[in-house]
Amino acid sequence: MDNNNQPSRKAPARSFLFRAVGFFVGDMHSCREWVKRQAVVIQLLDWVFRGVAQVMFVNNPLSGLLIMAGLFLQNPWWALNGLLGTLVSTVSAILLGQNREAASAGLYGYNGTLVGILMAVFSAKGSWYWWLLLPNVFMSMLCPVVSGALSSVASKWDLPIFTLPFNILVCLHVAATGANHPYFPEVDIQPNYHLPPPNDSIKSLNISQLFLSVPVGVGQVYGCDSPWTGGLILLALLLSSPTICYHAMLGSAAGMLSGLALAAPCKDIYSGLWGYNSALSCIAIGGVFYVITWQTHLLALICAFFCAYMTAAISKLMSVLALPACTWPFCLSTLIFLLISSEIPAICRLPLSVVSYPEENQRYQRQLQASEKAQHSQQSSRQEEARLKKNGGPNVQFVVERGCCESV
């Protein structure tokens, strides 16, 4: 009797566990609906942490909290600037009357996150230079302005703007100040002629450093070179979407291999500078803007390698102007791959209005295919009924007439 009741007792517990886990994964839709009924401060916290995570195409406040913990582990000053930039950018978007749903999903905060962090990273004054908060706030305020302007153009092709506002504003600030500015000096960026030193060879490679360069490359999306920070970011991605986590590691590894193939300095490879743009490109193509199939998975890997080559080229060009490469290679290479046209049904780019995390995109595609199949079946049955009615009328009349003649 106890054996018979045991499965029935385990089933509710298992169901409760799945529901509890489902509350924290994906985009935490239930949490988002709950936050809408809370105070403004709670809503802002949710939006800010979603904005921090949206840098990696993740719409999950718990993932944003984990990423912020990793940033504080790397450098508290950088993390503070990132939080301030996210908050100012989000509030500015609301005051400008931007789409509130997009703001609540963090889509007006992630550029502010990168602007705040990278302005602190490139500052030659080091940590806790409080005057840096002034240009940080100003540039973060401009993020929704630049985002709105770019979106009005990109929407004609139903394309995302990615981190283009961050690239524009950070390069603008670095170019306007420079290394010799009396108040806001920047680190001196030397021209990168890409001549590896004599001791950079295959024999001098550190295998453990190469493996660590994969999570470090993911961390470099936020300007961090600590493997612990990269590990926490990967954990945050895994919490929201295993597909995004996998493609982040795959893209970072592709960038590392490309650096080896192009004889890049080992220091740059170990520090993840070859991995972060490729990681972002691989995520974007591998399930976020395309429905994940083996074809789009292969396309994402090709895009990651292409982005690594573009990283090498753009880094050289930008260093001549004493500017950082930022995420220009990711933006340009991914936009190119989003503009391709294909007659293969498996390579399906989603409309921006329905883009979510990869697992949800797959569910949406399956539901859409099922709906189209049902609609097609219903239309076929209607056409068949109409054809039968059209062909069946004279037959019925012939049978009736024949019956009348027989009765006579």
Q: How would you characterize this protein structure?
A:
The protein contains 17 helices and no strands. By secondary structure, it is mostly helical.
Low-confidence stretches: 396-408
Kindly report how far apart the N and C termini lie.
76 Å
Q: Report the average pLDDT across residues.
A: 89
What global shape is seen?
Answer: globular
Using only C-alpha atoms, the radius of gyration works out to: 27 Å
Quick one: how many beta strands? Answer: 0
- Helical content (DSSP H or I, runs of 4+): 55-70%
What portion of residues belong to β-strands? under 5%
Q: What class, by secondary structure content?
A: mainly alpha
Give me the number of helical elements. 17
* Pattern of helices and strands: HHHHHHHHHHHHHHHHH
Biggest beta sheet attributes: none
List the topology elements.
Blueprint: H1 2-24, H2 29-35, H3 40-53, H4 61-74, H5 76-95, H6 100-104, H7 110-121, H8 133-154, H9 164-177, H10 207-219, H11 227-240, H12 242-261, H13 266-270, H14 276-288, H15 294-320, H16 328-338, H17 358-407
Helix pairs in contact: 3-4, 3-5, 3-7, 4-5, 4-11, 5-7, 5-8, 7-8, 7-9, 8-9, 10-11, 10-12, 10-14, 11-12, 12-14, 12-15, 14-15, 14-16, 15-16
